[in-house]
Amino acid sequence: KNLHFDADAISAHAPHSSRQPEQQQDWWSQLNRSILGRGRQTPLIIGIDSNSTLSHATQYSSDYQAAADENTASFYFKKFLHDVNVSLPSTYQHLHAGPGATFKTSGSKGTAKRIDYVAVSRELFEAATRSEIPQNIDLKITNDDHKPAALTVRYGSPSEDQTYHYQRSLCDSSNLQIPEARLKCTELLSKF
What we know:
alpha+beta
């Protein structure tokens, strides 16, 4: 029996925290309007380089194991999570396995922190079974300063036993020029 799975998947790259606050606010407001105005009530998956860090639990993140000092973009990211009503499974200790950092600043004293996430709407959050930063992805096909964020979701009736695995970095529009990434993204999307 085939499972029909209808969801909206979005990939986004927020402005760097060094941008002017007005530019950051404009970008996040535009993303909010685009998502809220989509006119659909389907599950939502957002792979995002938020360029922001979280220092503590919020309504949309909890048990935060990769906490870091917040930057200027953190306010807009938390507002986005609230406005769009999505959660970050990777911030829940019972869901996330392994290291949590997705980005390392350059230089010999580079700091590792989490700024890349897979955000999901409530129905997918409840179906999430594992969040991780995969260590076995060949980073030669992507920039090596970011690690991919991945989320495994079991969706459907238990008898159908369907598992879907979402990875942020491989399906970014910026990576679709790379044949290996385009093929992997096609494989992931063909499961729908």
